[in-house]
Amino acid sequence: METRGRLAFVAALVAILVGAAGLAVLWWSVSQPGAPVSDQVQLSAVRTGLPWPIALAFSPDGRVFFAERFTGRIQVLGNTTILDSTFFTIPEVASSGEQGLLGLAVDPNFPNSPYVYAYYTRDDAANGTVYNRLVRIRGSGSVGSGMDIMRDRIAASAIHNSGVVEFGPDGKLYTLVGDAANSAFAQDLSGPNGKVLRINSDGAVPSDNPFVGRPGADADVYTFGHRNMFGIAWNPSTHAGYVSENGPQDSDEINLLVPGGNYGWPNVRGIARTPPYLDPIIAYTPVIVPTNAAFYTATVPAASRGHLIVGSFNDHRLHELALTADGAGVIRETFLATAPDGILDVEMGLDGMLWLTTSSGVYRLVPAPASPTPVAGFGMMGLLALAPTVVGGDPWSRLLPSRDSERTPPRKP
Question: Domain tally for the chain?
Answer without folding.
Answer: 1
